[in-house]
Design the sequence.
């Protein structure tokens, strides 16, 4: 019996390797395509000075592609980010060069497309293998019983009441989504006439909404802000979380308590001074536009960060919850690993980069996703520190502006809302396994 | 805060001697290097601004004319506490909403987590994914969606209720966002929709409860409700406490929803004039930075007092499994 399983395992191994190799090949091809596209876009649009945001997008694409090529281990993540960046560029082109939209979808076709999508999603979520994690308490417990027997007993004991409750509740949670998707394909008349589902799916609503308030600009801004914020936030929080978890130094407890205390300070207390700092009223801040070329994207307004990228990203880089979450994860990494690494001559930094970070992928992914949510949702602070409506305002502002402009046209508004939400949902459904595991296994107790 | 420091940080450095050895000094150096980015950010964006904010509250100072700033002592504070009726009105509104929204939100999150943690539930992953999905929706989009779903004439909520047989449409129907009695409930719905983080945090705590406890209590003949009250609740009370503190801090700054829905006008009948709306208008619309700073400090003090009270009360109802020995 044992021999047979071993044999199958041996047979399974090469094919698994093949799959991995295919995946790597795929990411490498993606990266190459992205680099070529990005260089092309940069050459045509950005460098010639037509659109500087696009140049940054293109350069980011190049950087991410190169990163993926040099570090195949992380190429999947860099290619996801690069895909978002590339999509952004493609959308820009769609926006500029396509003619008026004349494309609508038969409802039957729309129905089957959405049914297939929902089915794929369901399969992906429901039958997905659990990721191996550092702290797999629940998985090891579950795997002790026979799987088939467990499922049978679960079905036998599972009460109908609970399923009814869960299905009703999840239906309530999803109703707004259904409404939004349905309405976004309606005509204006249909939105008023109390219809549940449109007769013909008006795909053009998305085109119209996208072109109404320069969503391309806001979309680009939000992507760039998110990339900057997440990069900074991860660097800051991984470093400090590691220090809190693995380095002994005087005042560690005190500083960690300070980190947690910032969670309890309302943002409103620091809002005015931070605004004054950012706008250069208190002291001339470094890297303000006039003396730091890369950020000289807006018009020079003296020593301030108003209407610049750092104003929207730097204040969010020291995120207490991220530090807390990562620390909880790092602290579970056995101390023996550090001893072994030190004997091999590695310092803290090398140990962190080569061992701790790869081991903590679920936690880092969770933090990344949370940071992305925060950055994509930000509205109040970006409104304060930007004056030019098109310079650096994020997509939330675009949606609000669209609401002010076309609030009565519900079908367009929902299409715009769905455009805003789509990147978040896509990212979530791609990463949700590691994400829910990331929070669930980090042990937030305390 | 003590709770976190002691429980989370774990054992202290075993250090009997006064002076540090070379390796300890090296450790300290690396620790400081690793932490310095956060520390710098903390000083620039948290600590100094907090003190500066207190300082600003003593000045009369508008942004349009920063040179005319002058020291007025406690004038701003006197005006805020005794002369400006809006302070107390908006605080009252904020607290009223918090008293309605906080229990509903926390109980929903906890009960959903209990259901999601149930051993008998097939497809836990699927439900977990579904319940978390709304949290991914940007707040502004969620507000716009809900304002339409709650529309008295065409919204799906009222039409659904009407289909069941409840009179929701028409003149005598449920006008969620126009009726002063329903407005807080409507806002609570919008908030609950994005409750996924609280559910996940509760869930992680529930998964940490040792199964031996449940097995032992089953042998002793305890029922479902008794196990929930006597085992589950005490074991996850630290996380409930954590959620409570963060919810209170969040609710004190409740702002975006009323701001987007009615531009801070307080419609209907001033029921949505939250404190933060008042603050935002004073500080950034009228640019009374000095007065705004004193409002900010007032809410900070109130939040601090509530947090402290919660920490003191935590001794009586928060149970730490590790501490009882």
Sequence:
């Amino acid at each position: 019996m044992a021999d047979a399983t071993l044999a199958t395992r041996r047979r399974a191994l090469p094919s698994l390797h093949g799959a991995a190799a295919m995946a790597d090949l795929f990411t490498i091809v993606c990266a190459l395509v992205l680099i070529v596209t990005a260089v092309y876009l940069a050459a045509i649009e950005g460098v010639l000075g037509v659109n500087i945001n696009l140049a940054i997008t293109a350069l980011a694409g190049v950087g991410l592609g190169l990163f993926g090529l040099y570090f195949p281990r992380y190429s999947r993540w860099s290619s996801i980010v690069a895909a978002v960046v590339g999509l952004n560029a493609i959308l820009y082109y769609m926006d500029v060069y396509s003619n008026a939209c004349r494309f609508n979808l038969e409802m039957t076709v729309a129905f089957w497309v959405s049914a297939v999508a929902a089915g794929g999603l369901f399969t992906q979520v429901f039958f997905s293998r659990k990721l191996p994690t550092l702290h797999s308490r629940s998985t090891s417990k579950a795997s002790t019983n026979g799987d088939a027997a467990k499922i049978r007993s679960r079905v036998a004991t599972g009460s109908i009441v609970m399923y009814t409750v869960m299905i009703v509740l999840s239906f309530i949670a999803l109703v707004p989504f259904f409404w939004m998707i349905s309405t976004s394909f309606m005509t204006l008349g249909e939105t008023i006439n109390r219809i549940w589902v449109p007769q013909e799916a008006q795909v053009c609503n998305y085109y119209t909404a996208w072109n109404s308030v320069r969503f391309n600009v806001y979309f680009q801004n939000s992507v760039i802000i998110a990339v900057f914020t997440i990069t900074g936030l991860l660097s800051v929080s991984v470093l400090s979380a590691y220090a809190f978890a693995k380095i002994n130094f005087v005042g560690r407890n005190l500083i960690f308590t300070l980190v947690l205390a910032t969670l309890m300070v309302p943002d409103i207390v620091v809002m005015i001074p931070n605004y004054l700092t950012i706008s250069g009223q208190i002291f001339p801040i470094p890297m303000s536009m006039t003396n730091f070329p890369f950020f000289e994207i807006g018009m020079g307004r003296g020593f301030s960060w108003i209407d610049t990228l750092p104003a929207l990203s730097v204040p969010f880089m020291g995120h207490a919850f991220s530090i807390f979450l990562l620390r909880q994860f790092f602290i579970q990494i056995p101390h023996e690993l550090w001893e072994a690494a030190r004997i091999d001559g590695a310092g803290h930094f090398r140990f962190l980069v080569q061992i701790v970070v790869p081991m903590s992928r679920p936690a880092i992914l969770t933090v990344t996703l949370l940071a992305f949510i925060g950055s994509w949702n930000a509205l109040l602070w970006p409104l304060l520190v930007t004056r030019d409506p098109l310079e650096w305002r994020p997509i939330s502002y675009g949606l609000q502006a669209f609401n002010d402009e076309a609030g009565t046209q519900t079908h367009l508004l929902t299409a715009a809302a769905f455009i805003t939400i789509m990147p978040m949902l896509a990212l979530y459904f791609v990463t949700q396994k590691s994400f829910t595991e990331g929070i669930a296994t980090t042990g937030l107790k305390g | 805060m003590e709770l976190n420091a002691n429980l989370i940080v774990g054992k202290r450095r075993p250090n009997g001697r006064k002076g540090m050895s070379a390796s300890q000094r090296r450790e300290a150096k690396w620790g400081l290097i690793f932490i310095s980015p956060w520390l710098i950010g903390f000083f620039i964006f948290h600590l100094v601004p907090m003190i500066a904010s207190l300082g600003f509250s003593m000045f009369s100072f508008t942004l349009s004319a920063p040179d005319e700033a002058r020291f007025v002592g406690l004038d701003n504070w006197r005006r805020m506490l005794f002369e400006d009726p809006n302070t107390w009105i908006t605080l009252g509104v904020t607290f009223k909403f918090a008293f309605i929204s906080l229990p509903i939100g926390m109980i929903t999150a906890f009960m959903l987590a209990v259901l999601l943690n149930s051993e008998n539930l097939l497809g836990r992953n699927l439900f977990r994914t579904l319940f978390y999905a709304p949290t991914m929706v940007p707040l502004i989009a969620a507000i716009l969606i809900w304002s339409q779903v709650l529309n008295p004439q065409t919204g799906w909520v009222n039409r659904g209720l009407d289909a069941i047989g409840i009179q929701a449409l028409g003149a005598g129907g449920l006008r969620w966002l126009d009726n002063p009695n329903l407005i807080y409930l409507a806002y609570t719905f919008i908030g609950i929709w994005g409750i996924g983080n609280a559910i996940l945090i509760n869930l992680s705590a529930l998964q940490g409860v040792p199964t031996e406890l449940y097995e032992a209590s089953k042998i002793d003949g305890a029922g479902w409700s008794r196990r929930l009250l006597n085992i589950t609740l005490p074991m996850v009370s630290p996380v409930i406490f954590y959620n409570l503190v963060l919810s209170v801090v969040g609710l004190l700054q409740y702002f975006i929803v009323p701001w987007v829905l009615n531009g801070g006008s307080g419609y209907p009948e001033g029921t949505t004039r939250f404190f933060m709306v008042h603050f935002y208008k004073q500080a950034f619309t009228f640019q009374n930075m000095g007065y705004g700073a004193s409002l900010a400090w007032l809410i900070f003090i109130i939040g601090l007092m509530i947090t402290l009270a919660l920490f003191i009360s935590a001794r009586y109802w928060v149970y730490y499994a590790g501490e009882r020995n």
Residues 2-126 of chain A form one domain. Residues 1-23, 44-50, 128-145, 288-301 of chain A have pLDDT under 50 and may be disordered. DSSP finds 20 helices and two strands in chain A. Chain A touches chain B through 115 residues (CB under 8 Å).
